[in-house]
Amino acid sequence: MESSSSPLDAEAVADLVLLDPLTEESLVQTLQERFRRQDIYTYIGNVVISVNPYQSLPIYTPEKVEEYHNCSFFAVKPHIYAIADDAYRSLRDRDRDQCILITGESGAGKTEASKLVMSYVAAVSSKGEEVNKVKEQLLQSNPVLEAFGNAKTVRNDNSSRFGKYMDIEFDFKGDPLGGVISNYLLEKSRIVRHVKGERNFHIFYQLLAGASPQLLQQLKLRQDCGHYGYLNRESSSLPGMDDAANFQAMVIGFSPAEVTELLEVTAVVLKLGNIHPSWALALPSSHTELREICELIGLDPSTLEQALCSRTVKARDETVLTTLTVPQVSRNTPNEQKKVMGVLDIYGFEIFQDNGFEQFIINYCNEKLQQIFILMTLKEEQEEYVREGIQWTPVEFFDNSIICNLIENSTTGILAMLDEECLRPGVVNEDTLLTKLNQLLATHKHYESKETQNARHVTDTSLPERCFRIHHYAGKVTYNLTGFIEKNNDLLFRDLSQAMWAARHALLRSLFPEGDPQKVSLKLPPTAGFQFKSSVAMLMKNLYSKNPNYIRCIKPNDTKSAMVFTPELVLAQVRYLGLMENVRVRRAGYAFRQLYGPFLQRYKMLNPRTWPRWDGGDREGAEVLLAGLEFPAEELAFGHTKVFIRSPRTLFDLERRRQERVAQLATLIQKMFRGWRCRTQYQLMRKSQILISAWFRGHRQMKRSALIVQAYARGWKSRRLLRELKAQRRRHAAATTIAAHWRGYQARRTYRRYFRSTASTNLANFIYRRLVQRYLVGLAKNLPPLSVTDRTWPSAPYRFLDNTNQELKNIFYHWKCKKYRDQLTPSRRAQLQAKLCASELFKDKKTLYPKSLQQPFRGEYLGLKQNPKYQKLHAVAKDKLVMADSVMKVNRANGKTVPRLLLLTTEHLVLADPKAAQPKTVLTLSDIRGISVTRFSDGFLALHLKEVSTVGAKGDFLLVSDHLIELVTRLHQTFEAATGQALPLHITDRFSTHFPKGDVSITVVESPKASANGPVCKKKGSNKMEVLVQ
Prior knowledge:
The chain is α+β, with helices and mostly antiparallel strands and 1030 residues long. It has 33 helices and 29 strands. The longest helix has 134 residues, at 648-781. The two termini are 115 Å apart. Residues 846-1030 form the TH1 domain.
């Protein structure tokens, strides 16, 4: 290979010749890594490996064409355009005929590769009108070829079922003049049978889907695919493929008459599939299908019927008409000086579960292509070594000539024996053929069968009966002999040829020249194997006469998924394509070679003697450069124009040193550039600083002079203004004096007129007004703070202002309270209202009241929301909660207390058991008739109920609460809100309660014997109770 100017990537080398270490695993891993980076092309020397991405990539644009046009093959990234450009320039500039061999299995992208090659050649050649016409014909020939030669298989929706070889002819300027297309091994058997899940050739579906109703009527066809036996009587459409549109794009360079004749023949083939052999022997001449076929080709129906159902046999001077058997009738239905650049798109190596005659001849062709590939590669290598004066060392490689000879030998080859069996009289079948192969090839090391294995005492269960195995270069392939003899015969009886010659159809007559009665030949027609062997021999001769270029296509997965890589599948194709053998041949001698000039230009920085400039010759410079790097002598060789490096490891070491040296040089360049830039910037800044300083000093001097001038001017203006102000003040003083004298004069005159009648009243009123004015002004300046708790107020300076002062104090205090109330939040307002209500109820009446002033009224002391156990208590009342607290209920019988939960809502009062959280008593507020409390600091209270209420029959309740003030206050507020009346409250030491057994008189006594935890109740007889409180 010749090196690229871009850095080498050891993880995903662009050329597999440089792969180190070289194993199947490392080769597949390199292809996978490049595929992951969307680099679908890789080199093996000048061989391009293409991995099908199954999606469109932006690498085929006109910009890419320009990038690869007239560039060195290894100067850019691997691409199919590179090999197309190299072949085109070799043909144009060196006058060497070229051939591009495209191989790979079905679905690997061979057809797309051939399209890309032709589109590139068309894009880079000249732009004349005639040239453009030829270009368009070359590019548009693909739809025709694909229509008649491609079909859907299980592996590929657009699989080429023939080998296509296209010779593109160029004139001396490199402009295309035309093309000749040859085909090899068309899969004719697909017309009459194909497996389920596949399709027949595209042309049948395109014709039925894209033809107009008038054309279909003219061809006597129906649009329904299910009507035709050759289409398996089923409708078949492909996602992403428009058969109708492809039919419109198919016709190229044909006249309307030629198109009509071609479609008529296609329709005849399609309709022949509806003539079933089981009843064809008794077919009446008026049968619809036969009659329509004869109308299309201009033939008498009786003639076609006789040709399909009988056979004429000549023996010496006698002619015998023989009726055909059903299988024979089945076989009678149809089964199918300038510069040159050839493009070969042909089957790849095939290994299926069941391999038949088609796979055998396909793999034979691939063996021949592998043979020419290896030999031409070795020839190129040897020619370059001789041209450069490097000693050529013979390369050991697997020579597959022995396999080719096994198949094609004219006496002992498999094809020769197959032809012999087909021509031998007597009983001929696959068993007799296998017996003959076993006899002649028993000792051949590349041939195996069940009998030869048994003779060698080898047990191989994978080799069935009526099968043989060949050890191909790509692996072992087992072939099933069933159908070999029938497919090899490929007989077309003379009666049918003569019938087609008798048709009044120009194209059909040209397809059967052997049917001409004047050219009757008794010679047997060649077999399919012989024809294919001859075609391969002609192809090999053609390829040997041209300079070969290779594109190896690889299918990355079986599901046609975009950018999915299956290593096991790719490894199998690497073996089929013989890529490892190719790499070994390429790197058997020297893996890397490059012209001295580019090599020296790329690596000259590694030696001080060649850096930065070498004044001698390129070869001497390269020798000096490599001598300083101390590589082993066996790693290097110097040709006439190129330097050769043996192992990739040496090249990678050279590239690593270059990258390290480039980094050092880049650092040095950056350092020098930064120093120059800093010095230049400093000099510019210094010049600017000097210039700015000079201007600044001049400006400062001018500013100082301006300041002096301004000072004198401002002084002069100030003095002038001062003189004016003084004069104005004197004038004002004079006017004031005059006005005072005048007002005095008027006042004195008025006084003299009115003084004697109202003098005392006016003076008194004037004095009072002045005193009030002074008082109000002084009060505004000495107002007390705005705090509502501050009741201070300035005293009145005069006694006649006492009432006024008190009224203003009250107004000011009420105003402060209003301001304070306006700032309160709703919750705070409610708390203060409760506190105010408590003050009205208990102030100066109960000793406990002062202690409650500092305690906020919380209302909820049980934590109902946090305790799910108590939440159902609130649901009993079904209204808004006002207060929740724990209280002690006094037993009426013995005076003992028990704990209870008290819930006060807007309409109810609930007493509940704290343990079970179950309500004991539920009172509506209208059932309460009053409350009695003591005047001491205890929490004892009596809840008086109306006797007419539902709960009143149980009597009044005696409770003890730690929040008595808040409880009574909120009960009073709630009661008043619910009933519109004030709740009667009795603060006394002695009151009467109503119990079910009668009224009880309760006396409250302040005693030190009372418990600190609450009042002590003692029963004194049946109708008295004493309560001791602290």
